[in-house]
Amino acid sequence: MESQHEIKMWTPTTIILLLIMASGAAILIYRLMAGLGAVTNLNDRFPWGIWIGLDVLGGVAMAAGGFLIAGAVYILNMKKYKPIVRAAILNAFFGYLLAATAITLDGGLPWRIWHPIVMWQIHSVMWVVAIHVVLYTSTLATESSPMFFEKLKMEKAAKFIHKIIVPVVLFGVLLSILHQSSLGAVFLIVPGKLSSFWYSTKIPVFFLASAVMMGLSMVSFETILSVRAFKHTPDMGILSGLARGTLIAIFIYFMMKLWLLAKGPGLSAPFNGTMEANMYLLEMSIGVIIPLLLLLIKSMRENINSIFLVNILVISGVLLNRVNVSIFGVYRQASARGDSYFPSWMEIVVTLAFISIAIFGFKVAAKYLRVFPETEKMIR
Amino acid sequence: MSRRFRGADMTTANNKSVLVDLTRCIGCRGCQIACKEWNERSVKKTRMYGNFTNPPELNSECYTHIRYVEQENNGVPVWSFVKDQCLHCKNPACASACPVGALKKTPEGPVTYNFSRCIGCRYCMMACPFYIPKYEWEKAVPWVRKCTFCADRIKAGLVPACVKVCPANTMLYGQYDEVLKEANKRITDSPGKYVNHIYGKDEAGGTSWLYVSGVPFEALGFNMNVPAAELPKLTWAYISEIPAVIGVVLAAGAISWAITRRNKNMGKEE
Asked: Is B36 left (phi over 0), alpha (psi -120 to 50) or beta?
């Protein structure tokens, strides 16, 4: 455990993170007292803003690494990735807790967030989403519990979880596939509102495929960050493996996007100069085309700096995709009578606060829990 | 689709509908006032902005309003008056989207809202192809608000407040099939007077409120981007696949686990 004490708790970064978190908390308390209109720029034509687009849709996609790495290690027995499995699961757990908090506070009546659990509506995608959040967050809690049990010296409980880990992970993989795709399915009901750049009856598959890209990049991104924080020698086998996985996922996603473009607005449509076309071009360039071109070069897949760059591009691109689907893609129809939406500064601060909680939470976990047990062994 | 969710049966004797004949509306806004009184709505402050439509958009305090559309015909200004309110779809996107069953299509026709279930997710607002549900953004305990089709009055055997008060006989209230028949009759009887389109007959799979007009609907600001299909079918196509996905993922997962475990054990023996 000695090696982990290298993590210094009270750095200037930590203090800034805590200040942002405190501001976010203050805004959310004000939001509960004064209503959504007092803190957000949401309106009747734009009922969903960046709290849904970035915090919920983006946050859940960022958590996809948890089921991918857990599935690879425990079901496909890819031992190579064992050193990062705990970190991936813990990150997914944080991601889901934050997304669940965000959707609760974005709701008009947060104290009723439990209603879907008792008021079943099997024909509502939102109900399907709600049930998956509950089930998968519980599954992630189970998957990450051994770390906490170890800390509390509850060896028996940790052993028990280890015994049932395979079915638990399989259940998690199933729930993730359903949850990532159902977030896309939310938009199946808006064919007249969502631009044909993004609308498709196959949008659930698009959400799932892009979540896979995002999840692998996210895991790689966090691995590199922790390598730098701990000053370890990076395990290039893991990073190159993740880069290869990302390459395959991006290639499949790119083909799907081309198919949709040809079938829908047409292959030349991205260059027609409209706002939707420009947002689509931006999303595809940073999230798909540039990373694809970079990853096709073998030396790029084996260099930690270029992998890090690709990770940032893919993460930004998929986040932009979620914002495009939930805000820019529906903008033209929603603004037909002159309404508009741009997030208020308070919406932005709350979003930054959620990101700060994730970074801070992971830092605390890395300091006090055995998140990287294999790396510790290597150091000893 | 699940049985409980195929949309309302519009052919039953007590299924009510309204035909709005825009050629008859005189723009008096009596319906707007009657609606406000019956539904105990307050007002929101508005400003002059060069058009008589007031408030400019429906909002949480205003379930129906008259829109004043000014056009030119051979250099002569022409007014058209359009009554906006919830169209009460046969198979409403909002009700299918609601995760807690707060919105429901009743057998009498109205799509009603039950606040005690609502969680405020606003997916109904996103799902509605007509941008009808409105939110009480300024309140700490907000409701979704929209036209109720005076469900309480209909239950009591009364006519909706806006229909009751209209002095120009713009609205015809009655059983859906008969109202639709009358709409067709008006168009065939005087083809020069009406455009050949009943708005709401096919839009979003059909709505309980229907419109006929002398001016093309697109020129009156009607949303022409609404698919003719029942929108809930689009999401049901996904949801109904979930059991199959569960089966495939669990089977594939179990098989790959068994194979990789065997490989691992063989590796140990070697």
From this structure: alpha
pLDDT band at residue A230 using 50, 70 and 90 as cut-offs: confident
What ranges do the domains of chain B cover? 3-236, 240-269
In angstroms, the Cα distances linking A239 to A221, A289, A378, B250 are: 9, 20, 17, 29
* Interchain contact, B99 vs A334, CB within 8 Å: no
Q: Count the neighbouring beta carbons within 10 Å of the beta carbon of residue B156.
A: 8
Subunit contact B59:A113, Cβ cutoff 8 A: no
Q: Collapsing DSSP states into helix, strand and coil, what is residue A77?
A: coil
User: What one-letter code names the amino acid at A75?
Assistant: I
Phi, psi angle pair for A2, to nearest 5°: -55, -45
Which residue type occupies B39? N
Which of the residues B63, B121, B202, B218 would you substitute to probe the A interface, choosing the one with the greatest number of A C-beta atoms within 10 Å?
B121
User: Is residue B260 over pLDDT 90?
Assistant: no
How far apart, in Å, are the Cα atoms of B151 and each of B16, B38, B39, B59, B124?
Answer: 10, 11, 11, 19, 19
Residue A3 confidence class, pLDDT cut points 50, 70, 90: very low
Residue B255 has pLDDT above 70, yes or no: yes
B227/A77 Cβ within 8 A = no
Euclidean distance between CA atoms A324 and A170, whole angstroms: 32
Q: What is the mean pLDDT of chain A?
A: 92
Q: What is the DSSP string of B18-76?
A: EEEETTT-----HHHHHHHHHTT---------SS--SSSS-BTTBS-EEEEEEEEETTE
pTM: 0.93
Tens digits of residue pLDDT in A16-66: 999 999 999 999 999 999 999 999 999 999 999 999 999 999 999 999 999
Residue A33 has its nearest CB partner, among B57, B96, B140, at B140
| Bridge partners, residue A244, by sequence | none
pLDDT at A380 over 50: no
Chain B CB contacts of A122 under 8 Å are: 2, 239
Greatest alpha-carbon pair distance for chain A in Å reads: 66
Is there a contact between B246 and A71 if contact means CB atoms under 8 Å apart?
no
Contacts of B226 in chain A (CB under 8 A): 192
pLDDT tens per residue, range B192-221:
999 999 999 999 999 999 999 999 999 999
B 99-118 residues with CB below 8 A of A? 99-101, 117-118
B139 at A interface, C-beta within 8 A = yes
CA distance linking residue A257 with residue B161, whole number of Å: 50
Lookup: tokens for B268: 């140990």
| Residue B21 scores a pLDDT above 90 | yes
Residue A224's closest CA among A145, A149, A304, A331? A304
> Which chain B residue is nearest to residue A327, measuring alpha carbons?
B126
Distance CA A175, CA A193 (A): 29
B residues 18-77 closer than 8 Å to A (CB)? 56-60
Question: Can you say whether residue A7 is alpha, beta or left, with left for phi > 0 and alpha for psi between -120 and 50 degrees?
Answer: beta
Task: Match domain B3-236 to its CATH number in 3.30.70.20, 1.20.1050.10, 3.30.470.20, 3.40.50.980.
Answer: 3.30.70.20
Q: CB distance from B252 to chain A under 8 Å?
A: no
